[in-house]
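Hello,

Our lab assistant flagged a job as stuck in the queue for most of the afternoon. It eventually completed. Since we weren't sure the result was trustworthy after the delay, we are filing this so someone can double-check. Below is the sequence as submitted and the structure that was eventually returned. Let us know if re-running is recommended.
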Amino acid sequence: MKVLPFKIPKPGKEALVYQEDREHFFYDKLHEHEEIQISYIVKGSGSLILGDTINEYQENDILIIGEHIPHVFRSDNNTNDLSVMYTLFFTKHSFGKEFFKLTDLSEIDSFFDESEYGIKITSCKNKLLKKFNKLKYQNRIERIANLLQILEIILRADKKPLSSFVYHKKYTEVEGKRMSDVFQYTLDHFQEPITLETIAEKANMSKNAFCRYFKKRTNKTFLQFLIELRIEYACKLLYKEKELPIAEVSERCGFQNIANFNRKFKEIKAMTPTQFRLSM
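-- returned structure --
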């Protein structure tokens, strides 16, 4: 299986693909696909890296990932429960090149525009969950009708972008594997010290070349990305393990001293770790 691009398995020649994932971990390799993805997280939690942003996802989230956006799901590994996700995959031309150009569907243009940076739905979720829970029992025609109803709800819902920057140039297979290796190593080892020399070696590049390469494709330095990943993990610990001392949270997240942890946490979250814990 190639890491990039990733091909969505299509039973027969279905224009709209409905997929149920039931695994201990969602597919965790950096990948992209031509289809727009609308996913309902039925069970599970973790991180979604998309564009220049690390997002947390949890049960009942509705996430939309636009076409050709490299992304990777990282399921939390501190549970034996299955992660479950229901997803619809489709393109602008799934139902013919003129379908979404119909006057009656002109409002959907804004959905396609917003999906380019990913979307997280923040209202009308109960309506959407009911629509998603019907999909497994519907035939192909009913699912297409249901998709249009889902899109109509999304247009009216409150939402926020999942990213502020997306590298729009398509990755080659070599580039895709390189970035996947970088993300995979970082996700596996962010609680440990990671030097630029180490991560550049994983990318098979010199340190300076890697720094330029990573910044161009993510709009941030690798060290910025690493710190944000650590801070997001810290937020989980502060929320889920309320008796854990701040110093231990700092250590578990890979920070070498608590002063640096507190400073970086406040820079990113605009509050101290203690204030964050009290706000939850």
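-- support follow-up --
The delay was a queue issue, not a problem with the job. The result is valid. The two ends are 41 Å apart (CA to CA). The beta strands are 17-23, 36-43, 46-50, 53-57, 62-65, 71-75, 83-90, 119-121, 159-161.
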